[in-house]
């Protein structure tokens, strides 16, 4: 039986922080628009900010559907599945906002991700989600799967990019500045990656 929670804490928080992958779902307001579902990985790229707020790092890619949908309407669902241990599925339904490189909140948010080197992955935004509904379900049909390690391919692909070449990469992609359905996506030109206030 599914259960609702008032906040993200205790065993619920421990569960979602222990998962190596989660999924995000968004959609435009247009009923004929494209629903987007994305897997998110890389250890250290997700953080619980407080009992009702979570955030994750949005890395370079050839699309920006989540960003476009959040800019239009803010609706987002995050989902975690237990692939080992007791069965469980957790969903956080809420409102999300992309925080971009030139936002004054950037440095403060990045402090929640100490294990990620942002220069290796073409980091383009931090997605901050305010939870409105938190639920779990049984997950009885989710298979057992074993985590081995993060793939090194994303870092090896984007670590060689500078701010300028990364911007050029995004400019060439059809659905980065504009979504599949024509919504505004990642604002370009891409601002420089901020240097942390401590110089690190």
Automatic annotation (TrEMBL):
A Pfam family matched in the record: PNPOx_N
Signal peptide bounds: none
InterPro entries: Pyridox_Oxase_N, Split_barrel_FMN-bd
Domain Pyridoxamine 5'-phosphate oxidase N-terminal positions: 10-138
Lineage top rank: taxon: Bacteria
PANTHER family the UniProt entry points to: PYRIDOXAMINE PHOSPHATE OXIDASE FAMILY PROTEIN (AFU_ORTHOLOGUE AFUA_6G11440)
Record protein name field: Pyridoxamine 5'-phosphate oxidase family protein
Source organism per UniProt: Actinomadura harenae
